Amino acid sequence: MAPLIALVTGTVLARLAGLAGVGALDGWHPALRVGLALMFVVTGAAHFAPPLRRDMIAMVPPTLPRPELLVTATGVLELVGAVGLLVPSTARWAAAGLALLMLAMFPANVSAARRGLTFGGRPATPLGPRTAEQALFVAVALAISFGA
């Protein structure tokens, strides 16, 4: 739920800043870039926060090697992608890369839901709502990548 809150809050606040006269945020496209960047800062940082990191490592499907390395690598990619979203000349490529990253990481969410794992002390999000949320995140990334 925190990633969704970050996306919506970041987008709305950026759009309001644009309407208040911040030229770089004047429009929905730049506001979406800020919202998605904030979401990836939140999720990327979670890859390194000790209690959440442990839960993320457990989410990695057991068939994949070196789950610690995978969690570190995806966390770094999320944080680099967040920065890339904020740079107009790299935003489209960053958004496309992040969309692909989200698709590649989705099996970890499926694995967590099927195995009844917890995340941050709470049960993993059930697969239906998690799939809908992931589809929204990917759609936003694609809108940035292919949008105005």
Give your account of this protein's structure.
This protein is mostly helical. The protein has one domain (2-146). The protein contains six helices and two strands, in the order αααααββα. The protein has helices spanning 2-19, 28-46, 50-59, 67-86, 91-115, 127-146; strands spanning 118-119, 122-123. A two-stranded antiparallel ribbon has the order 1-2. A hairpin with a 2-residue loop joins strand 1 (118-119) and strand 2 (122-123). The longest helix is centred in the C-terminal third of the chain and has 25 residues, at 91-115.
Note the main attributes of this structure.
elongated
Q: How would you concisely characterize the structure shown here?
A:
It is found in: Membrane. The chain has 148 residues and is mainly alpha-helical. Helix content is 76%, strand content 3%.
Q: Number of DSSP helices? A: 6
The whole-number mean of residue pLDDT values reads 94
Number of domain modules: 1
For the largest beta sheet, what order do the strands appear in spatially?
1-2
Low-confidence stretches: none
Structural class: mainly alpha
User: How large is the radius of gyration?
Assistant: 15 Å
**Main pleated sheet:** 2 strands, antiparallel
Helix content: over 70%
> What letter string, H or E per element, gives the SSE order?
HHHHHEEH
Protein name: DoxX family protein
Subcellular location: Membrane
Organism: Micromonospora peucetia
Keywords: Membrane, Transmembrane, Transmembrane helix
